[in-house]
Specification:
Distance between the termini: 38 Å
Radius of gyration: 17 Å
Number of helices: 9
Order of helices and strands: HEHHHEHHEHEEEEEEEHHE
Strand content: 15-25%
Number of domains: 1
Strand order of the largest sheet: 7-6-5-4-8-9-10
Structural class: alpha+beta
CATH class: Alpha Beta
Largest sheet: 7 strands, antiparallel
Length: about 240
């Protein structure tokens, strides 16, 4: 396993921001697919470049060229190869950095352009770009979840845990999810990530908590950081074809 040496205390402030979540959800729970929850996202890269310039991110927007070329290249590939290539792109484009260093805040969910323009981000910034990328190349929303976890630090017996976020891909309903993680470049099944304890998960429309598998409601209504970053993405050319 190739592990990236990065700080793991990426989300201390999430406990305060998301304090209403108090139960541990089962990571293997997947919402049933329906015609109402399979839409993806699209990225208008012309608008992205306009927003890049107007935001003062500099004249070098080659990372947007690379991102667009990646998405065009992998659109016809199978899902696992899409995961591999999106994961590799994000790990190459970004260095891990805490919000307190980047934004002088304990917790800030950055848009893709905000993250790519700096070439740095923390766990949820990695996940957000991976999520948007995979949606835009045909992986459906009901196959993806942003998963809030407790990451165990110092081995299986360690009592020390830190708040963290990973992206889960579910090949089929009820399947074991495959996890993309800012802390390592390997993409592994959830069963091999014994260091992670799931707390809740969400996508562009719904949030799940607890062990029953039922939706806990709208993710954008329940999670203000998620709602805010999705709204800010609109000016960057990201649009969703799903009711939220």
């Amino acid at each position: 396993m190739r592990v990236v040496n990065r700080k793991t205390d990426c989300k201390r402030a999430m406990r305060a921001t998301l304090a209403f979540v108090t139960v541990v959800c089962a990571l293997l729970i997947l919402p049933s697919r329906s015609s109402e929850n399979t839409a993806g996202a699209s990225i208008d890269f012309a608008q992205s470049r306009t927003q890049w310039r107007s935001s003062g991110y500099g004249s070098d927007d080659s990372v947007l060229d690379n991102w667009q070329a990646l998405l065009q290249r992998i659109e016809s590939l199978d899902d696992r190869e899409k995961l591999n290539q999106v994961n590799a792109f994000v790990h190459k484009a970004l260095n891990y950095k805490l919000d307190s260093v980047l934004w002088n805040r304990e917790d800030y969910w950055a848009t893709p352009l905000e993250t790519l323009s700096r070439g740095m981000g923390d766990c949820e910034d990695f996940v957000i770009i991976q999520y948007i990328s995979l949606l835009s190349v045909g992986i459906t929303d009901d196959q993806l979840r942003l998963i809030y976890v407790r990451a165990r630090i110092g081995g299986p017996a360690s009592p020390i845990t830190r708040a963290h976020m990973v992206l889960g891909y579910y090949p089929t309903p009820g399947a074991e999810p495959i996890l993309l993680d800012s802390l390592m470049e390997d993409i592994l099944p959830a069963g091999e990530r014994t260091d992670l304890t799931p707390v809740f998960s969400f996508n562009s429309s719904e949030l799940w908590a607890g062990g029953a598998g039922a939706s806990a409601g709208s993710s954008t209504a329940r999670l203000s950081p998620w709602r805010n970053v999705l709204n800010r993405m609109k000016s960057e050319g990201v649009s969703f074809n799903v009711s939220r």
